[in-house]
From TrEMBL:
PROSITE patterns according to UniProt: RESPONSE_REGULATORY (PS50110)
Cofactor names: Mg(2+)
Keyword Phosphoprotein: yes
Sites of 4-aspartylphosphate modification: 53
Annotated GO biological process: archaeal or bacterial-type flagellum-dependent cell motility; chemotaxis; phosphorelay signal transduction system
Superkingdom of origin organism: Bacteria
Native source organism of the sequence: Sulfurimonas lithotrophica
Keywords, comma-separated and alphabetical: Chemotaxis, Flagellar rotation, Phosphoprotein
Keyword Ribosomal protein: no
Pfam families linked to this entry: Response_reg (PF00072)
Protein name according to UniProt: Response regulator
Ranges for domain Response regulatory: 2-120
Amino acid sequence: MKILVVDDSSTMRRIIKNTLARLGYKDVLEGGDGVEGWDAMNDNPDVEMLITDWNMPEMNGLELVKKVRADERFVDLPIIMVTTEGGKAEVITALKAGVNNYIVKPFTPQVLKEKLAAVMGVSD
C-alpha cells in the first residue's frame, strides 16, 4: 500500500514513517507542506492513503484535503488528519472537509495503528 505523509515537521514525518514501517507499510512518500503533498498526489495517483498535518505553511492540511476531495481521482482516498488541533470544532471542520479519521498529537504507535485499521475497515 502506498501512503503519503504530509507534515512540515521532518521529525514528525520520520516518526510516522517509522511507525508505518513497523506496521508493515514500506511504500511511504513524504511532503513538507500541502503544495508538496499535492504535487506528490499528482505524481503518484496510485497513492492509497493520505496522512496529513493540519498546520503547515504554503497550503495547510485542510486546504489539501479539500483539494484532494475535489479531484475525482481521489474522491474515495482514505485521509487521516494528524494535528495538535484537538477541539471539537476543529474535528468537525476536518470531517466535513472529507477527513476519514483524526489523530491528535502527541500520539502513540498504537493509536496510529488503530486509526489506520479503522479507516481501512480492518480489525485486529
